[in-house]
Amino acid sequence: MRIRVREDIGVVFGRFGKGRPVPVPEGEYGYVGSALGGQGASSLGPRLLRHATRSGSRPPHSIRAAMTGRGKTLRWHIDHLLDRLDAELVSVIALRSPERLEPVWGRLLEEDSHTHVVEKGLGAGDAPGDTRLLRVEADEGWWAGLPRRLSACRCRNQP
Q1: First-to-last CA distance in the chain?
Q2: What 3-state DSSP class applies to 126?
């Protein structure tokens, strides 16, 4: 997911970092996640709908205009950032795979010279030491080429 933060903020990502606010400077961010469930809330469509929704009476992200659904409770680290009105879900790159590839893709992005780790372990509660939320300092060409780079990485890592 591509997320734009409009101003410097501090975000409490649930219990991450013992509830300490994490500085999230204004800018663009990439988040790597998976939705491997075959149906229900953990499948891709409902997961994206959830991320495009804010809790309570807060307005949804503009990308959600064509989607339907109800509000949400904050569950994953990324929910806490996306619930903020100063953070906007801009776009989604969805690549289908039966494999859990976000650790591989997260490492690929961590190693990219255009990205910076916000906080080690953030967004990756299931994989200590990994990171799924990264600040991106790149132009539109970098974002446009991202699906190709992720797909190439996926092919290299399949048996």
Answers
A1: 26
A2: coil
The domain total for the chain is 1
Angle at 54 between CA 52 and CA 55, to 5 degrees: 145
CA distance 148 to 150: 6
* Cα→Cα distances 121→16, 25, 76, Å: 9, 18, 13
Range of the domain at 149: 2-157
Question: For the range 11-19, what are the long-range contacts, defined as Cβ-Cβ under 8 Å and sequence gap of 24 or more?
Answer: 11/80, 11/81, 11/84, 12/80, 13/77, 13/80, 13/81, 13/122, 14/74, 14/77, 14/79, 14/80, 16/77, 16/119, 16/121, 16/122, 16/125, 17/119
Those residues whose C-beta lies under 8 Å from the C-beta of residue 90, and which sit 6 or more positions away, are 2, 3, 4, 28, 63
Question: Residue 15 burial (CB < 10 Å; 0-12/13-18/19+)?
Answer: exposed
- Determine if the pTM surpasses 0.85: no
Q: Are 141 and 149 in contact (CB under 8 A)?
A: no
Of residues 81 and 121, the one with the higher pLDDT is: 81
pLDDT digits (tens, 9 = 90+) for 62-119: 766 655 555 567 788 888 999 899 999 998 888 877 777 888 888 899 999 999 999 9
